[in-house]
Amino acid sequence: MKKHCLALDLKNDPQLIAEYENWHKSENGWPEIRKSIVDAGIIEMEIYRTGNRLMMIMVTDETYNESAKAASDAANPKVGEWEQLMWRFQQPLPWAKEGEKWVEMKQIFQL
Question: How far, in Å, CA of 34 to CA of 16, rounded?
Answer without folding.
Answer: 22
